[in-house]
């Protein structure tokens, strides 16, 4: 309820998340909320840590301080990512949002490494911890605040599809776990003199390191060129196939230059005997409408396909059976027969599964040999395609 109140109050036109200005307002709101929440938690926990001499509480306090710095970097990342395209970066600066998230991840890991050292030192040289009711209650409240902050970042991150905010949500949820461990060690100090504080500090530090590693893994993937989401792939393919005269699609490639900055290209199979101006109008309309609907820049390449005949239909069915019987082959496209008389060229592309390790030449030889067994008059011209989705 409080999350929706903040969104309604500070984000005008909050449902229009495709709008870059609205999306940035979401990012700034999440960053400011993170700064305020983590600053308050740092003040509370560092006070408790100093009053009780608890290394685990102190480690958790500085973890909140690093989270506050992370929120500042997130705001900067959103600001830089919204810089308009220029000559050097014609597709904009959207990937800077991923870079800001990566910086946050490394900061989280640095905090974890520093406090592993402090926790080990506390185990080797124990210091008595003073249990007090009020600091204990304050720590419980901090857990509730972190849980809400995780939910808030998750809601906003999903609304605007922000990897930085989704990562912040995971990080905050990890803080709920680490703070819970701190509360346990703090409470246990009331009943034992063992250096539980140091051991819990190690657990907290390892959890912080794992959170940092997870953030690095999640944020570096789009920078390296990760595969598009299955939802986007299916949406593009289904929408293109919904237009008149388009009988098949293949070779979909999606390039991500940041959220809302996707460029996609796809091959559309059309009848070879259709009027070129007619199909050109269809393709133009599909590019324009799908680009607006899915918030991508779509380019469609036309692939003319031979008009269906009994010979083509029979040959395609036989080739399809060969492909289905081979575990490394996924599909085929651009199937056509060229030539007249006894000698004809059977031309088509085959798509191998991404995990395939068989050389292309071996796959082509296998297909050609299988086809020659029943159709020795066909000269096979085969191209092996890669699956980019």
UniProtKB/TrEMBL annotation:
Residues 228-304 form the Cation efflux protein cytoplasmic domain. The chain crosses the membrane at residues 26-48, 68-84, 96-116, 136-156, 168-187, 199-216. Residues 32-224 form the Cation efflux protein transmembrane domain. It is found in: Membrane. The keyword Protein transport does not apply. Pfam families: Cation_efflux, ZT_dimer. Signal peptide: none annotated. The keyword Membrane applies. SUPFAM superfamilies: Cation efflux protein cytoplasmic domain-like, Cation efflux protein transmembrane domain-like. PANTHER family: MANGANESE EFFLUX SYSTEM PROTEIN MNES, MITOCHONDRIAL METAL TRANSPORTER 1-RELATED. Belongs to the cation diffusion facilitator (CDF) transporter (TC 2.A.4) family. This is Cation diffusion facilitator family transporter. The lineage of its organism: Bacteria, Bacillati, Bacillota, Clostridia, Peptostreptococcales.
């Amino acid at each position: 309820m409080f999350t929706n109140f903040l969104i309604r109050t500070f984000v005008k036109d909050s449902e229009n998340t495709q709008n870059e200005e609205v999306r940035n307002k979401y990012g700034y709101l999440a960053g400011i909320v993170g700064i305020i929440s983590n600053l308050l938690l740092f003040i509370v926990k560092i006070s408790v840590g100093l009053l009780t001499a608890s290394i685990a509480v102190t480690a958790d306090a500085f973890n909140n301080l690093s989270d506050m710095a992370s929120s500042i970097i997130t705001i900067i990342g959103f600001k830089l990512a919204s810089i308009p395209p220029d000559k050097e970066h014609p597709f904009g600066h959207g990937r800077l949002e991923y870079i800001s998230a990566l910086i946050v991840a490394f900061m989280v890991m640095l905090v974890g490494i520093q406090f592993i050292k402090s926790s080990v030192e506390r185990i080797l040289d124990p210091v008595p911890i003073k249990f007090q009711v009020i600091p204990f209650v304050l720590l419980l409240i901090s857990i509730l605040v972190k849980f809400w902050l995780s939910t808030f970042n998750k809601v906003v991150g999903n609304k605007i599809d922000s990897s930085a905010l989704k990562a912040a949500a995971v990080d905050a949820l990890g803080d709920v776990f680490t703070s819970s461990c701190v509360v346990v060690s703090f409470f246990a100090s009331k009943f034992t003199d063992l250096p539980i504080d140091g051991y819990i500090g190690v657990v907290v530090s390892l959890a912080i390191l794992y959170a940092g590693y997870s953030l690095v893994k999640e944020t570096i993937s789009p920078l390296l060129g990760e595969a598009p989401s299955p939802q986007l792939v299916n949406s593009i393919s289904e929408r293109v196939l919904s237009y008149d005269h388009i009988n098949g699609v293949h070779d979909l490639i999606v390039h991500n230059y940041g959220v809302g900055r996707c460029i996609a290209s796809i091959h559309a199979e059309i009848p070879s005997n259709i009027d070129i101006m007619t199909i050109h109008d269809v393709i133009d309309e599909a590019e324009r409408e799908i680009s607006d609907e899915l918030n991508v820049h779509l380019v469609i390449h036309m692939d003319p396909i031979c008009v269906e005949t009994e010979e083509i239909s029979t040959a395609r069915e036989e080739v399809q059976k060969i492909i289905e019987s081979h575990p490394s082959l996924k599909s085929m496209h651009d199937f056509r027969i060229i030539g007249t008389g006894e000698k004809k060229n059977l031309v088509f592309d085959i798509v191998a599964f991404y995990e395939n390790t068989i050389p292309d030449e071996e796959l082509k030889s296998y297909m050609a040999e299988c086809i020659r067994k029943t159709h020795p008059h066909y000269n096979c011209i085969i191209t092996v395609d890669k699956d980019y989705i």
